[in-house]
Design goal:
heterodimer, A: mainly beta, 7-stranded mixed beta sheet, 4-stranded antiparallel beta sheet, B: 6-stranded mixed beta sheet, 55% strand
């Protein structure tokens, strides 16, 4: 398995601002993902964070809104840009280490 | 996107009762995974299934990979208060690389 930490654990932000979420893994992993979980819903994949190249985004998610960095095999950031109340969600980092494991999530509230 | 059909959506049970939930799909899956999510936490992997017909236990939890590869169930025996939470099934489709397909979740509530 892998131990995944995320910062911040939660935040309350104003409309129009941006927030960068950090994900740190305790071992080198090839595959790292970012998910969104809206209140009372299941998980939706935002993108795959690729080390050394641009992230691969799923349908409905774009780089301008959710820029992602992956400078090495243990770290990634997701930025939620120009936030609106509809962006209020839990954002989860996930990695594959034999199976898929998840970080504790970042609970974002946009006012 | 495509989802698994997970049922029931929620369950209210007495402590000590057995619990059963399942996921079905019209598509064939290579892997079935069961996760539990507590409030304020990320999903935690409970059981992973890799072969049709496979039956795997983890303590009081038992899960099976359906023979048709289109379904899976999770049973919890003798439920206790810490079993409360949301249980998700997820799977990798046949011929898929990494993307997990998710069920909508089963919320388990235990009456003391």
């Amino acid at each position: 398995s892998a131990v995944i930490s995320q910062k911040p654990s939660r935040d309350i932000c104003q409309r129009g601002t941006s927030l960068t979420i950090q994900c740190q893994v305790d071992s080198q992993v090839t595959m790292m993902f970012w998910y969104r979980q809206q209140p009372g819903q299941s998980l939706t994949l935002i993108a795959t964070a690729n080390q050394g190249s641009e992230a691969t985004y799923e349908s409905g998610f774009v780089i301008d809104k959710f820029p992602i960095s992956r400078p090495n095999l243990t770290f990634s950031t997701l930025t939620v840009s120009n936030m609106s109340p509809e962006d209020s969600s839990i954002y989860l980092c996930s990695v594959v280490a034999n199976e898929q494991f998840f970080g504790p999530g970042t609970r974002l509230t946009v006012l | 996107g495509q989802q698994l059909n997970q049922s029931p959506q929620s369950m209210f049970i007495q402590e000590g009762e057995d619990v059963s939930m399942n996921c079905t799909s019209s598509s064939i899956f290579n892997t079935w995974l069961w996760y539990k999510q507590d409030p304020g936490e990320g999903p935690v992997l409970l059981i992973a299934l890799y072969k049709a017909g496979e039956l795997t236990s983890n303590g009081r939890l038992t899960a099976q990979f359906g023979i048709t590869r289109k379904d899976s169930f999770l049973n919890i025996s003798a439920s206790i208060p810490s079993d409360v939470g949301i249980y998700f099934c997820a799977g990798h489709l046949k011929d898929s690389n990494y993307q997990l397909i998710w069920g909508a979740g089963t919320k388990l509530i235990i009456k003391p």
